[in-house]
Amino acid sequence: MRKHRWLVPAILILILISSLIGGYREKQLRQKLQNRAEGQYQKAFHELTWHLDEITGQLAQNLISTSPEQKIMSLAALWRQAFAAQANIGGLPLALVPLSQTENFLNNVSTAAAVFLSQITEQDQAKEAERVKAIEVLYERSRALAADLNQLGAKILREELSWTAVEMDAYAADEKLEDNTIVNGFRLLEKNMAAYPEINLASDFAQFV
User: Fold this and answer.
1) Of 120 and 74, which is predicted with more confidence?
2) Is 179 domain-assigned?
3) Which one of 52, 56, 134, 198 has the fewest beta carbons within 10 angstroms of its own beta carbon?
4) pTM
């Protein structure tokens, strides 16, 4: 009987070791998934910022273009960039911050680009003047939005903020996160966009259809 006294402690030790190994592996897996999510969120934000910079540049390019070919190229690029930026927004962990103003602006950009592309070969001075006016309005808003995003991005890098931390804090706060640098940055961005007069596509672009 004595020779079996070691059996129970040995089994307990094996169970403890297995638990420790399992816990370590689980922690490693959790960390790996968190790092992957962080990378994806960072990529989505950096691409969103880049696309907004490109949209601003293409709008400016369209304003100074003199040939139909140049305008076609810039409008086609504009449509692609706006579409890609909308996809980037969907890749951010910001369900608790409605980005309706930003999404609406990007939708206006892609719609305007498509409408102007369909009419680019027409020689109509009145339409051209209205097109320039519409592009100027979009350019002003795009430049402000891009500046806000770049400023937020610089702050995220400077303070070494984590996107996954925002996500976890939001879940912990039951999506009622009130004081967070990233969340506050996007709320300010939305507030700034909401300050502009609303673009009514039905009336503002009706003359191009």
Assistant:
1) 74
2) yes
3) 198
4) 0.81
